């Protein structure tokens, strides 16, 4: 597989993506970026107890004695005005237009582009398993938003939202962040949570999914080794596995996805801008 990026480099794309983000005044909240694949951070009344977007409940958190709804905006959302419902009031907010760049990939393993019926059935079973996890809304977390760390240190090789073409054929947009790192690099839990799914998937390879509570779910893919089990509680910075190149991958890297209210969002909106900010390194692991 060879990677081709339209009109610009990954580095330029990263800085462009970061410049799009609205800087929010509270460090522990995610970035407010109201676009497809983004996040809307909306202040609600302090006595609000439930909030929903469409048919999905959303995260409610407290920061500096104020309450906020943290709304994940799916990559397929239409631009224009949308509605957040709470038990106390309704809030209109606008989703802005945003054009993601293209990513064109040449793949030598044709089965990863056009799976045969047996492979396709396997993929569909695995996609169903993952969809069930993404729809979870558990009460693991307390009142404050999860503060994430980078799950691995390395070069960003592919940002969120790329319009992907495999051997010239259009495919779904890239729903995560790819971090290129050496084979066997330690992969860390990005936040406290419970491991709700592990598996060796057709496209994603060896994968771990973590439930962080209130509909916040992360997925870490292409691992060479998994060091946790389903049902296990993990602490932020705990080792969950090692970077690999299992599944549809041309080289060792970590694919990292973040989901809010069953919407995959840009992980850069919840991660520190500097990979070393609050990061637990292998030196800290005994």
Secondary-structure topology with pairs:
Elements: E1 2-5, H1 10-20, E2 39-44, E3 51-53, E4 56-57, E5 59-63, E6 66-72, E7 80-86, E8 90-95, E9 102-106, H2 117-134, E10 155-158, E11 163-166, E12 169-170, E13 177-180, E14 186-188, E15 193-201, E16 205-213, E17 216-226, E18 233-234, E19 239-243, E20 253-260, E21 263-265
Parallel strand pairs: 9-11
Antiparallel strand pairs: 1-9, 2-6, 3-4, 3-7, 5-6, 7-8, 10-13, 11-12, 13-20, 14-19, 15-16, 15-18, 16-17, 17-19, 17-20, 20-21
Describe this structure in words.
By secondary structure, the chain is mostly beta strands. It is built from two helices and 21 strands. The chain has helices at residues 10-20, 117-134, and strands at 2-5, 39-44, 51-53, 56-57, 59-63, 66-72, 80-86, 90-95, 102-106, 155-158, 163-166, 169-170, 177-180, 186-188, 193-201, 205-213, 216-226, 233-234, 239-243, 253-260, 263-265. Strand 3 (51-53) and strand 4 form a beta hairpin. It is globular. The two termini are 37 Å apart.
Please state the second-level CATH architecture of the largest domain: Distorted Sandwich
Q: What would the CATH topology of the largest domain be?
A: Glucose Permease (Domain IIA)
Mean pLDDT: 83
Q: Would you identify the regions where 5 or more consecutive residues have pLDDT less than 50?
A: 1-25, 280-286
Strand content: 35-45%
Radius of gyration: 18 Å
Any idea what the shape is? Answer: globular
Quickly count the helices. Answer: 2
Distance between the termini: 37 Å
The count of β-strands is: 21
Helicity, as a percent range = 10-25%
The largest sheet is: 10 strands, antiparallel
